[in-house]
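Example (one chain per record):
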Amino acid sequence: MEPLVEARGLGKEYGAGHRVVDDVSFSIRRGETLGLVGESGSGKSTVARMLLRLVEPTTGQVRYDGRDLLAADFGQMRALRRHMQIVFQDPYAALNPRMQVGEILAEPFAIHRERPKEGLKARLAEMLRTVGMDESALERFPHEFSGGQRQRINIARALALRPEFLVLDEPVSALDVSVGAQVVNLLRELQQEYGLTYLFISHSMPLVRYLCDRVAVMQHGKLVELGECEQVCNAPQEQYTQKLIAATPEMPASV
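Predicted structure:
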């Protein structure tokens, strides 16, 4: 099967000689979840943003469904962005506090000049139900919700235009364990229902083991290990991967 997303020799340099990502290559097959793990500062989020061209690579190539993203012009990228979305780590900072939830969820449709066939309000209500929330949330503001509810709203917004590929940038690290477990299970259900492809960024190997098919391990901007999740978690080849596994607790029983 052809990969949906490919990174080839990705590198990112800030300033003179400050290289934060160096020669990173991997692919993500359609419908699978690739975990990208490593300590803070290892370059995970920079790689994710380069895949979406939110950050321009210094070197390398990104391909989406066989297409060279770095060769796409503004209009072409605008059209492609409906197929790829991101859910950020902080559910509080990711939502505009001055906008009602209905306005927040409607933004993707306004940006892409699209009106849902079933009507905008009906589509927004459907989006909320998809993530386990009631449509009464449409007329409320972000501060009226818990962290877990805000992250569900972020996920609903990311799914608005029915993308194929989601980057999940540590989507539960700002939540307490039980709420985070609920969000992780929601992500699994959504993937099964809609055939989504995920890049799941985390520093937790047990969480990656639970959710992901394969795992890529980053250290100091470099990819140091890549393989099937069970294989890497059960028999890690790199000492750094062994330390990551030893440093994170097992998944809670509630997941």
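Caption: Residues 177-194 form the longest helix (18 residues).
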